[in-house]
Amino acid sequence: MPAPAAETTEAPARNGEPTATERNPGTPLDESWVRASRVNPSATQRRAATLPTRRSIKKEWQAAWLLRAVSCIDLTTLKGDDTPSNVRRLCAKARQPVRPDLLAAMGFGDDNRERDLTVGAVCVYHRRVPDALDALEGSGIPVAAVSTGFPAGLSPFETRLDEIERSAAAGADEIDVVVTREHVLRENWQPLYDEVRRMREACGDAHMKTILATGELGPLWHTLQASKVCMMAGADFIKTSTGMEAVNATLENGLVMTRAIREYHERTGHVVGFKPAGGIRSAKEALGWLILIKEELGDDWLTSARFRFGASSLLADIERQLSHHVTGRYAARHHLPMG
């Protein structure tokens, strides 16, 4: 059966990227492809361990890679004490993630293209979606809402669907949903497929990122199998973690998930994005993830349309490293406020 044609949605151009964002329409569930999944854990661990050392990125090249990383950050606040004011501060930082004097010193924008450096999206709880939309009006920065009983995903299913619909109706551009880990642990692939498919329908025009919570799925082949099912069900992105598990984003799971994305793309022609989240705090770690994407998926995935970091503190370290690149010394933290 031929795969359905991919959908596209129009979005404002940001960071010099294309305006058309591809969507994954999904395919019928093929359990034989899921059950045929194989992972060599020791080989995966060896490959992941060498990724950060495979490329030596220095000086202006490192600065360019870090600017790319900034453009792919989902700047996130998911705290119980979030208020409209701290969401507005976060959104101000999303609009201007790096100090203008640092960008000018690096020659950013000297090619005369009209572009602004912004983060990839701002990610908040449903309650804060209107605050984020108001603060980001006119910027073209998407607002992502976490949903479906985040982070455990154990709310009644209809309640989870209602939460998705409410966030989409409130204007969220993207919805980060939590899958039921039990389906993966018990290898019940049809219920997982049906769940994600209904979530995709509830999202409407909002892009859907499915959170696998890989740190709670057991062996690596469960991550591979769950990735395949979620993509066939129509996930626009697959995401490692909520950021609240004991083990969050690791290069081992990232390697398994990116190879699943590549195989799905070769099999169907449909594009799926990738989002590692949780525990990525340093510029050095961000470079390791960019190397992974470049080597496993290629340059086409090195854009915010196909790759995101889920992070709240990563940006601060990247800006600090960029300041060191420009000035030759590390700036005090109060010179690089988060907003």
List the total number of helices: 13
**Termini gap:** 51 Å
The Cα radius of gyration reads 19 Å
Q: What's the architecture in CATH terms?
A: Alpha-Beta Barrel
Average pLDDT rating: 91
CATH top level class name: Alpha Beta
* Beta strand count: 10
Widest sheet: strand ordering: 9-8-7-6-5-4-3-10
Give the number of domains: 1
Largest sheet: 8 strands, parallel
Strand content: 5-15%
CATH fold field value: TIM Barrel
Quaternary organisation: single chain
Element pattern in H and E: EEHHHEHHEHEHEHHEHEHEHEH
**CATH homologous superfamily descriptor:** Aldolase class I
Fraction in helix:
40-55%
Structural class: alpha/beta
Shape: globular
- Note poorly predicted spans: 1-6
Summary of the model, kept short:
By secondary structure, this protein is α/β, with parallel strands linked by helices. Helix content is 43%, strand content 11%.
Features of the shown structure:
two-stranded antiparallel ribbon; 8-stranded parallel beta sheet; TIM Barrel; 13 helices; alpha/beta; disordered N terminus; globular; 339 residues; 43% helix
Write the layout of secondary structure elements.
Layout: E1 8-10, E2 20-22, H1 31-35, H2 41-50, H3 59-71, E3 73-76, H4 84-95, H5 100-105, E4 121-125, H6 129-135, E5 143-146, H7 157-170, E6 174-178, H8 181-185, H9 189-203, E7 207-211, H10 220-232, E8 237-239, H11 251-268, E9 273-275, H12 283-296, E10 309-311, H13 314-327
Parallel strand pairs: 3-4, 3-10, 4-5, 5-6, 6-7, 7-8, 8-9
Antiparallel strand pairs: 1-2
